[in-house]
Amino acid sequence: MPNPVVHGERLEVVLLRENLPDAILKVKEFRGDTFICVRRGRLREVAEFLRDHPDLQYRFFSECTCVDYSRWEHERDLPERFEVIYNLYSMKYFSRIFLKVGADDGVPVPSLIPVFPGAEFPEREVWDLYGVVFDGHPRLKRFLLPEDWVGHPLRKEVPLGGEDIPFDQGTTGPAIEDLQQPHAGESFEGVTGTEDVGGR
Amino acid sequence: MPERTFMPSTETVFERIGENTLVVNMGPQHPSTHGVLRLICEMEGETVVNIEPVIGYLHTGMEKEGEYMQYLKVVTMTDRMDYMSANGNNLVYTLAVEKLLNLEVPPRGQALRVLLCELSRIASHLVWLGTSALDLGAMTPFFWCFREREKILDMFEMFSGVRMMLSWIVPGGLRGDMPEGFDKLLVPFIKEFPDALTEIEGLLVENPIWKERTIGVGVVTIEDCMALGLSGPIIRGSGLEWDIRKSNPYCGYEQYDFAIPVSKKGDVYARFLVRLAEMRESLKIIQQAFEGLPEGPWNSDDRKVVPPPREELDTSMESLIHHFKLWTEGYRVLPGEAYVAIEGPKGELGCYVVSDGSNRPYRFHMRPSSFMNLQGLKKMCVGRLIADVVAIIGSIDIVLGEIDR
Question: How far is A8 from chain B, CA to nearest CA, in Å?
């Protein structure tokens, strides 16, 4: 069953524009995917609307992830540093929709756990790796990283490599001062010729 | 200096529900946790009242590393995520990059991709079947499953020279065509595998001990699955007929005739039956893909992505330039973002790639199916006995390489 299109726009977008007009900041179509940029405070409303509307039924929570755009040089969808992308799937038309929320450092994004309990793990992962705070998340603790990790490694300013690994709890190996600044080590990023290249 | 604790104590990660409960640590070295999953269970007698997975022991920062690698080199890292079905991971990443590049792969390449992915799916399900039966005390299926899987790995070795981490599916097509004489391995496998599977099934399907341990254990409803993001055999075991190969076909899956196995009960036994049936369906797809394998090129002819054949380098200056540029700088991808989902052996396997126009991904993220499927653990385990936890972990089919990335 193809996804219905009304006047060149997908039904989801049309219905959202009708019912929650001030919640949508921008709609982007790219390679057949629809990205809806949502005002941060209205995220739960939009998600609930998409989930409960009988013509849409976005009831499958696929995942959420985040992108740090602090080194981005092209046009942006949202002005904030981080974009959290929620990925919902509808079993009615077998279609997918992406909700984008912008967040700056320390600005909380409303957690989607009340709407989709499945947001717990991915939101915790996003906090772990990016430091985006989710308002209403019950357990924003380290998930993939060790409990005593400092910083959020998927941020663009954190270099690849260079962390000291304290095998002996600081009795041998790197100095304690180095351990307290885990990312103070060298980066493998380099420049050769005129082109930026990775360290590999 | 801050106090460094290497193994977090159970108290710090867990809020207890009751007063007369016992907190039991399980893993990360427990044999039934398939790697390094650690579970903290709150027990009332033998009953689980709360359970909390602790993950991250295999975290190697692959998503971060991907941002520093050229597009082609990231393929090798996707292998190491779900190492039980490396082809599926290669495919989903490749499709995401191809979506950004707007690249089409010729029919032969697509059919070969389907062939490899379905072989991978069978191999992955065989490992699941063997190990989850072993967890519940059935030793023989483990040996028989690995005997069958060995044949698939031999085929992969013939195809690519590698048994597990193929990296054979790359943006633009495949690294090479099907080798000569591949049918000498594949045709007997297609012929013999159904009987071998029947033999393995005979040990478990009607086995009273197996049924006692699995029927009615770890039940989830469709609604729970959707809200928690559980996909693949779990959601089909609960009764929803949803398979991305049918609902959003990719790589020409719409040409193949296969069914979506569904079971209604939603328990461990239902998921077991679904995966068994899926192996037979996969075999059907393999047979169709092999018999109807189109002639022609298997790679895209876009020289900006696919390196030219070796013999062209002697005669064409342009090919030499392409060859040199592709193996040093790699290719550049236009700015944009793309998400692609395929039906992996464990559920919806997704890949999200953001490109900023350079030769490396700006952001590379996988949606690991077992990471999301693990969220169902609490729903399935609470109220059950501790012994059922082992059966339930087996039925989720987790791969920690994929969860921790």
Answer: 21
Segment B151-156 long-range contacts (CB within 8 Å, at least 24 positions apart) = B151/B185, B151/B189, B152/B119, B152/B120, B152/B122, B152/B123, B152/B126, B152/B189, B153/B123, B154/B185, B155/B119, B155/B182, B155/B185, B155/B186, B155/B189, B156/B116, B156/B119
**C-beta of residue B112 within 8 angstroms of C-beta of residue B90:** no
Q: Which two tokens stand for residue B264?
A: 């209604």
In chain A, which residue's Cα lies nearest the Cα of B71?
Answer: A198
Peptide bond just before B28 cis, omega within 30 deg: yes
CB-CB contact of B164 with B86 (8 Å): yes
Strand A134-135 to A109-110 pairing: parallel
Cβ distance of A154 and B65 shorter than 8 Å: no
In Å, what is the CA distance from B273 to each residue of B129, B189, B268, B278?
A: 10, 22, 9, 9
Separation CA A83–CA A104 (nearest Å):
9
Q: A96, B69: Cβ pair inside 8 Å?
A: no
Of the candidates B265, B261, B283, which has an alpha carbon nearest to the alpha carbon of residue B274?
B261
CA distance B75 to B66: 9
pLDDT in single tens digits along all 200 residues of chain A: 556 777 667 888 888 888 888 888 888 888 888 899 998 888 898 999 988 888 888 889 998 999 999 888 888 888 888 999 999 998 888 889 999 999 988 889 999 999 999 899 999 999 989 989 998 888 888 888 887 777 888 888 877 765 555 555 555 544 555 555 544 444 444 433 344 444 43
Quickly tell me which residue has 């099907």 as its tokens: B178
* Residue whose C-alpha is closest to residue A133's, from A105, A102, A167: A105
Chain position carrying tokens 């398979």: B243
Give the helix/strand (H/E) hosting B101. Answer: helix B86-101
Question: Among partner residues A31, A118, A145, which is closest to B227 by beta-carbon distance?
Answer: A118
Neighbour-count burial of B203, counting CB atoms closer than 10 A to its CB (0-12 exposed, 13-18 middle, 19+ buried): middle
| DSSP code per residue over B325-358 | HHHHT-----SEEEEEEEEETTEEEEEEEEE-SS
Picking from A66, A139, A147, A152 by the largest number of B CB atoms within 10 A of its own CB, the best residue to mutate is: A147
**Token pair for B33:** 């946790």
Question: Is B294 within 8 Å of B107 (Cβ atoms)?
Answer: yes
Burial of B382 (0-12, 13-18, 19+ CB in 10 A): middle
Angle between helix axes B386-396 and B268-291 (nearest 10 degrees) is: 20
pLDDT, tens only, B183-236: 899 999 999 999 999 999 998 888 899 988 888 888 899 888 888 989 989 999
Give the DSSP letter of residue B47: E
The tokens describing B314, both together, are: 């002697």
Which residue of chain B has the CA closest to A195? B329
Cα A119–chain centre separation: 12
Cα dihedral across residues A144, A150, A155, A157: positive or negative: negative
Q: Can you tell me which residue has the tokens 């569904």?
A: B262
